[in-house]
Amino acid sequence: MPSGPKYLSVREHLRRRVTSLPEHTLLPPEPVLCAEYGVSRITLRRAVDGLVADGHLVREQGRGTFVTRPAIRHEYRESFVHRIAGFNSVMTEQGAHVGTAVLTQRIVPAPPPVATELALEPAVDVVELVRLRSVDGAPNHVAHSFLPSTMYPKAAEEDFSEGSLYEFLRREYAADLAHARIVVDVGTAAPEEADLLRVVAGSPLLVVRTTVRDSGGAPLVHSFSRLRPDVSQVEFEVSVGGR
């Protein structure tokens, strides 16, 4: 099993196991699973609790634990067809409850890849904003955003526990968010973000990188989001002949 906290390893292994089983399949009894995974009953229950919370398993009193399917598979959506609208705005419009925990908000020298995306000189100061985003209470992704601090100094102090970064930029700076370039690739979860996303360290993550530019092509914001692939999917909408 993967490295990391024991209950997370058991949970990830069980998750993969139950997703391959038909719905309503009865899980083996606790003593059997404890022996199979070499863990205590407490560790096993903690692993199973996570899968119950995520909608992969359901407990029925007196009958056991059965395979089920999550009711909703959340789509990671950012709309760039008729406007630049971020995850919070789009998901809220779809009726989902978006939660945000701000993990980092500070001014730092731009890392080389960020400086390149924002067309900045190396080590120029940027506002770094890192947020854990959840949908309907389940952790969905960790979003890292970078903005030139000289252009958007208020971003270092704004409360981003609610609302949209893009809407803030429009409201406070009349930012001309006109174009976006998106790149999607695959990464693996580092131990700290694995704990945040409730996955095992080393698990695959979807990585969505976005650079937003103004009408003249100047880069304004660079972000990358690292998503749990088991509860997220990335949707693209392309408009031809429109704005």
TrEMBL record:
NADP as a keyword of this entry, yes or no, is no
Q: Does the keyword Transcription regulation apply?
A: yes
Q: Which UniProt keywords apply?
A: DNA-binding, Transcription, Transcription regulation
PROSITE patterns in alphabetical order: HTH_GNTR (PS50949)
GO terms, molecular function = DNA binding; DNA-binding transcription factor activity
Q: Where is the signal peptide?
A: none
Q: Name one GO biological process term.
A: negative regulation of DNA-templated transcription
Q: Which residues form the HTH gntR-type domain?
A: 4-70
Q: Which PANTHER family does this one have?
A: MANNOSYL-D-GLYCERATE TRANSPORT/METABOLISM SYSTEM REPRESSOR MNGR-RELATED, MANNOSYL-D-GLYCERATE TRANSPORT_METABOLISM SYSTEM REPRESSOR MNGR-RELATED
- In its UniProt entry, what is this protein called? GntR family transcriptional regulator
| Annotated source species | Geodermatophilus ruber
Question: Lineage from the top down?
Answer: Bacteria, Bacillati, Actinomycetota, Actinomycetes, Geodermatophilales
